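Quick note —
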Amino acid sequence: MPATPTTPSHEDEDLLFRILSQLDKAPDASQRATAAAVGTSLGRLNAQLRAAAEAGLVKVSERAGPDKRQRFAYALTTRGAAEKIRLTDQFLARKFAEYDALHAELTGTTSGLVPFKYRTKLMQNNLAPIPELYVSYDSAQKLKVEAAELKSHDLSPRQICDLELLMNGGFNPLKGFLNEEDYNSVVDTMRLADGTLWPMPITLDVSEDFAASLEIGEDIALRDQEGVILGTMTVTDRWEPNKSHEAEKVFGADDDAHPAVNYLHNTAGKIYLGGPVTGIQQPVHYDFRGRRDTPNELRAYFRKLGWRRIVAFQTRNPLHRAHQELTFRAAREAQANLLIHPVVGMTKPGDVDHFTRVRCYEAVLDKYPAATTSMSLLNLAMRMAGPREAVWHGLIRKNHGCTHFIVGRDHAGPGKNSAGEDFYGAYDAQDLFREHQEEIGIEMVDFKHMVYVQERAQYEPNDEIEDRDNVTILNISGTELRRRLAEGLEIPEWFSFPEVVNELRKTKPPRSKQGFTVFFTGFSGSGKSTIANALMVKLMEMGGRPVTLLDGDIVRKNLSSELGFSKEHRDLNIRRIGYVASEITKNGGIAICAPIAPYATTRRAVREDVEQFGAFLEVHVATSIEECERRDRKGLYKLAREGKIKEFTGISDPYDVPTDPELRVETENVDVDNCAHQVLLKLENMGLIAG
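Predicted structure written out below.
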């Protein structure tokens, strides 16, 4: 009869845990030194090392040198590093259980340490170190060599943000990208499969081709956009998710007006991979390096200063006087120190860039008492998921050592849905956070809507002004602030700090001095290029800013000559146009684009690229397909109807008619000059050119 496989004893697993930990710390030590460090005999160590090598946990190599007792060198593999992390959790779980039993025996009460089914939730104080997924420096150097031979996935900007927070413990207790079971549980219940609270799916989305090239159990290298290996992952799961279901459950609606839902359907890969991650090195940030802290670095900082209660303020916007008053009050109410913890990863499209925001934060940081306030930057890719995001932010701030968290009105709200209504209720985020507050382990501080009372020259919570009928209440909305900046109007000192306004004006000069993009779209032969040429001449006649025409035929010749006319290639061509237009806009110029651009999702992506830097004017040249065919001098429509040109827009391929362009022009029975003049009037109305 074949032998029945035996389950390793706790003693064997503890020894393996100690060996892997020691190899991580001192990979070049001799076998004798390693045996002494882990407290076992040389013979038993060698037996364990052989078994670990057979299991793929340890790599054995010949060591050159005269000492025959050091013939072999042992180093952790990617799989061994992941196994060390698993065994660490298991070891801690058992030790906590032993401690709990001893505590009960001695005191008659349990310790309060609650073991979960598969991992231990450490009921630790907020200043103790938390687990990270990095291996030691020496092991990392060896793993880099090994990982160079693995299949590689080049991470997107969002995935880099996620990986960084996985590796440094910001996403504790996650040990990697979610497997399918955890993903399904998180989507449906806001909990991992073992019951741990976790509201946001953290998944590695990849293309179908890359996913098909992998075997379950295979290790892959995770690289940044420069090709640097940041970590490795053992692929334990591979599946095609129901993205519509994910959108409904996580974001409340399968509506592309939500930026994360749009990302889910139009940017993210079709297949998800899950598995444990081994960290090799942090992503490199060249900006504001002194302001970037890992969770353990912040915890050590708080320990050093003797801070025990810390209230975190989440923001993705510049700080104005109302925010300062709000944070002062929150810290005072919580009797806590204040951590200003802005997000500098990915926020909502159209937000002020993080370089400008951080300069604004630094400009007003001295308005806060230095002994009670600190600032650190969080490289998080926000999902704008409202209530779920608030709970997620709370867990992240708990990992960073905070004890209190300010949850705002419409916290992490994405704005309006396709019906023009808010995605979430104003206080939904506060309600969900309050429901889970005890389990999160961090106390919520309500965000109060602060307004300026002119007679008393101070900010007060709007709902606490009892004599509101007898005083003058002043407030400037975000929309009004943007209008004032765009038009170069005064921003009163009671609203913001002069230093903040100066920084914002550097990045956001009056609209009449900003770069912008005019994006024409319509059928072939609709008149886009003709109107675009006329507009270019009129803008050059006005002067003041350089003007560049990115006509479809010109771009095809000079920028996309190798591309065909498949949907994939046409999308890529439009994205290239959008990239060039965004660079022109960023540098204060005027970009005029005149491609067909048939797909709404691609036009939206171009808009988002451009609106990071300036205004975007979409002009639908609404000439009918019949008129375009009548005008056709090149005979393209005739060839398309004969089937000689495949995937021709309007004939054999669809055109998504813009639903809400800034301007729609009709060209039938209207001369070109009049159409170009309509665009000029719209630009003047938007404040982009002087009247």
